[in-house]
Amino acid sequence: METNPCNNIVNGGSSIPSRVNRKTKPDDTIVKINSVQVGRSEIVIIAGPCSVESREQLFETARSVRAGGARILRGGAFKPRSSPYSFQGLGEEGLKLLALVREETGLPVVTEVMDTRQVELVSSYADMIQIGSRNMQNYPLLKEAGMCRKPVLLKRGMMATIEEFLLAAEYILNQGNEQVILCERGIRTFETSTRNTLDLSAVPMLKRLTHLPVIVDPSHGTGLRWMVPAMAKAAVAVGADGLIMEVHYKPEEALCDGYQSLDLDEFTRLMTDLQKIAIAVGRNISLPKPAHV
Ligand code: PEP
Ligand code: MN
Fold first, then answer.
1. Can you list the alpha helix ranges (DSSP code H) found in the chain?
2. Atom of ligand 1 nearest to the CA of 185
3. Potential cystine with 72: which of 15, 46, 104, 135 (Cβ 3.0-4.6 Å)?
């Protein structure tokens, strides 16, 4: 008889599946994206544009976020847009630009995969593949990601409970891929003043329930550029292992999510503040030494 590997642990009777469960594996899982390790005391910052738009946009943004202390570059090539008439991303051309920028900057790249048919292509270019909020419960995609040998950044579904989020991660681990990072990116509530309600309580809850690293996306979590720094600092204070933030060299000209993207100076300034918070909570963010002028 097939057994259900969910241990009925606690928490309002919810069941946390076994492979992601901290009771099964008490030690933190460290996710390795090339030479970058997520889940240790160093807090890892992922930054870059919402979508890859051009060579110039990607290179300028990447060089600047690297100088500011980002360790991984983000940028969507296949974009899940609410409207079919909005910019859908550059597709494979965008993946090629990401690979070129990695060559120059040394930054590993993370980019979204929306469909099972794209997993092979996207994972041949990316150092980590992202499963977006809208696809958190796309079970065939989760399984396919579990079969590929690249780390997976799994974003919380905008309507998903913590239990559903962990069950989604379990699908990936079940296929033999344990390199999974969870990302809190805000959920839908009755509140409309922010794009989503960033559930920072998810961070300590997830850290308690699972051994997987947990990061926060204050860009999609708020939808407001001016609020991103405050929520980024709060995320570090509550124990996030990293942050993923949208940064654009010209936010007002961005083809996607410019209103929630930091500009290059805002990002650099924020990194100095984040380092102070990290140190205050017993973690660290190493910043590169400023280049001599
Ligand atoms: C993104 O990171 O570009 C994105 C689309 O995020 P989410 O899936 O959280 O909406
Ligand atoms: Mn975006």
1. 55-68, 92-105, 119-125, 139-147, 162-174, 202-209, 218-222, 228-237, 264-280
2. 9
3. 46
Q: Calculate how far, in angstroms, residue 12's C-alpha sits from the geometric centre of ligand 2.
A: 33
Contact 90, 53 (CB under 8 A): yes
| Predicted confidence (pLDDT) per residue in 155-184, tens digit | 999 999 999 999 999 999 999 999 999 999
The residue nearest atom 10 of ligand 1, judged by CA position, is: 133
- Check: CB of residue 223 under 8 Å from CB of residue 193: no
Distances (CA, A) of 253 to 2, 31, 89, 94, 259: 54, 34, 15, 18, 10
Two structure tokens written together for 256: 């996607």
Q: What is the mean pLDDT of residues 225-241?
A: 99
Cα(261)–Cα(270) distance, integer angstroms: 13
pTM over 0.70: yes
